[in-house]
Design goal:
This protein has one domain. Helix content is about 70%, strand content about 0%. It is built from two helices and no strands. Helix 1 packs antiparallel against helix 2. Keywords: Membrane, Transmembrane, Transmembrane helix.
């Protein structure tokens, strides 16, 4: 979503340039798109860490009981 928003910003800048509303230099895409990609990566990393933390908390609450079988008599066929 963040990367798409930065791509739309670049498209709007160059669209305004093509329409003659203003002049956009050709090198304007580099800082806009690269900062958008960095922000998208940061947002992805934050979401990943939040999911892992939530899953770890859920797993620690679920593992309080004994295992299904502790006798060791599971037959292997």
């Amino acid at each position: 979503m963040v990367a798409g928003a930065s791509g739309l910003a670049v498209a709007a800048l160059y669209g305004g340039d093509a329409a003659g509303a203003w002049h956009t230099p050709w090198y304007a895409v580099i800082p806009l798109l690269s900062s958008g990609l960095v922000l998208a990566g940061l947002a992805s990393w934050i979401g990943y860490r939040a999911r892992r933390r939530r899953d770890a908390r859920a797993a620690s609450r679920d593992s309080t009981g004994a295992p299904a079988s502790t006798s060791g008599t599971q037959a292997i066929r």
